[in-house]
């Protein structure tokens, strides 16, 4: 596996030259470099992947020395990401990810599944993944979330994935896991935000439905989009059939988004993502 | 070319049997039949295409006799549709349709082009299509539209196509041409309605942009959708580049929608379309 | 669930009228009708779905009476299809179908999985689906197939699905299960038939890869195509990465094809399929 | 417009550092950099775009000095590409490109159109583009091509585009214009090479058809692929309807390929293309 360096900083001339100078001096076996400048905000982004050993602290210090002040430098050693999934009743995204985790189709490991219903406990057990039922019955939103957070944190995950988790989150929850919390929304954002997007799609008579994977922020379904895709529908589809058809798009879009995130290809910027595929 | 029968009526058992009985009795050379029932509204829709002669009036009367009261029966003899285009400054949809009309790629003929700017007069002239400049300068919306309507009506068109015509229409205009007025909107509805959809798409950081062809109603961009398609974009696209990329989707989506309409494959129902492809 | 009538016969005028006459006379609650005529071969195809009771034998006899001689009439009562899967080492199609079967995302039940390697035994067990290891080691192709056939037949399946089963079948095997045997080929047929299609795709430098689900015939990868789809690739993809990317297309294409087959929407004709979606 | 530097050479550590060092030293306003290493062949590719003045000769010399021997360095000043189109009878690709050239939708100018039939002379005239009829009647393939080459060369084009030009070229012709000759083939290569690909597609019963834009080499339809795309078809499509549907894919695929080529984003390597989008 590869080590990945992600750099985000104010742009200035010569950055690529300085950065690659350090890589060259260390004779790192660089496998891929990608860079992009958002000219409107004068922001520079670069991703470097390399194989072989290199003391991360030293590399970090040397990069810091040549980059603008406040440069964001992240060096990620090759490792499988620790992930906790939150689920409700729908099984398709959970099932798809349980298989991918078991067979390492993606570089992550599902540490646990937390559900606000017991529905998906059996499926998790089939994959020997710990399942925690944390029902919201009789609890306020805050009380419920505190229990969920406690359970999440006990696993020290790199990422928390809402795999068709249907509860609305508080701003406090989103803020706590900012940049680590990913959701799959069953519509092609920004169309059909909120509840029952397939019913909304049906009512509007669209000829295409979609799904969107995004980082979660305070605003419902408004966070930085990672990945989207669509599938054609027509007048013969009921809202229920649109939902059925949409499930395959949801699970593939979520998996594609997670692939980008787990391979450290994604930068967050101005409520959008920059992705070096 | 084929004659097309379109039937829309309240559903009841035996309709297909009765309708095909009449076709059989007349030994019509039926090429295609399609039917659909919207069960929620108990509405039946059928399209029949046939070749060969058949007195339309007689056929209409016989169908009327076996169908529920108030059945909508339309029999369209093979004919090229008369079309008037409304344009503003962008050339891509106009250019694409001028070629399709000249070479009969679609069964329509552009009788005239009306522009609120002179920009596209030369392009129309290159195809020997009459161009009428009707500027809105110094006129109220209603005054301008009256002039446009007068010009449109002088050509007795079957359809009026807004080919990136950027003026907002009055409810009176939409109502007058209800069912004959088609627009191409440069977004994937219902996302990004109204002005500058590509700028909106850029600001939202979507990874897919699209275009939608629809019948025009009172509400801006809310009419029955005929056809939609998308294209992928990414962080390297400025709003301007999204617009450039979107133009190809717009012209193909519009052409595909017009193909469905001009081949009498489209039914309007509950602010949606039923399309027998 | 619905009963489905599938009719294939020589075309003549009045068929839809006669068929729907029988449905009407029985006051069946017809939910959908689709018909198509292949004019080149003068062949008529029709699919009718209806709910409610109706003695199949009587219906069959009445239809036979009004249709051309040798008409093929199949009436399928609502039932979940019995399916046996054949697998080798790759897990993605098997895993996807095990989930769909367990949750009834498609109207089928996996009776058993037969593998020529032990690799996927655990995954089958996780879903409590019987797994039979039938290794080909030390056996001739015919001997091995006899054992596999015997195991398949013991389950009396409606369909046999080759879910990335990598052994080449004898003509005798294909002939025996003609019309019931479905394969997923990891290329966009007819490109890259045979072995290592992703390596072939990589060598050719294609910008799109795909997968094809088809009925199996004597000729390798030449049988009637049911469903195909593609995904974009580029110069940064190694053959291995193309294969990884292709797996998602394979599993979705296979599932879409099986949906069509299990819902009795597919007719075989002239080495192609007619599908009433 | 931007100046583009394209570099292809044997890979070694430190190339990006050395190249960007030269750009930095000259304080060039770099707008985009992309690099890729084909590890199997140890080949390095880089594309740099920048605005502002810079003496190309001096830049070329300085780059040459730091790069491996035999490095291929091409510096292209901002300029609209001179293009000659070859056509036969089909109008859709020609029409689309004539519009794009007139309105500068792509950075190219159609200097002339050469047709082996007179069919498309009027369309070229509508756009005031010189048309040369060079019929092959009564001439050997070599004699005809000599006339065509002479006409092409008189315009000193950067690129020659076969816009549904149906004549088979001699190896001598392909060799002469190697790297500058682009064709649109009406199938999704490598499926259906050669003649009548839509008839082949129809006979095979595919559910998807496509088009491929590629550089022309000796082998028919075997050259490096630039761009491909597809569209869905079904059993209701005759070969003729597949061809009609395919035309839109052909013209868009060709335009997308030309955009990549005219923006100097394409490298040829091992009979494939590396494209920095």
Protein model, in words:
Four copies of one chain form a homotetramer. In chain A, helix 3 runs parallel beside helix 8. With 277 residues, chain A is α/β, with parallel strands linked by helices. The first copy, chain A, has helices spanning 15-25, 56-66, 92-102, 121-126, 141-153, 171-176, 197-204, 239-262; strands at residues 3-10, 29-38, 43-51, 72-76, 81-87, 108-115, 131-133, 159-162, 181-185, 208-215, 225-232, 266-269, 272-275. In chain A, the strands form three sheets. In chain A, strands 7-6-5-8-9-10-11 form a seven-stranded mixed β-sheet, with helices on both faces. Chain A has a four-stranded antiparallel β-sheet with strand order 2-3-1-4, with helices on one face. The interface between A and B is medium-sized, with 29 and 29 residues.
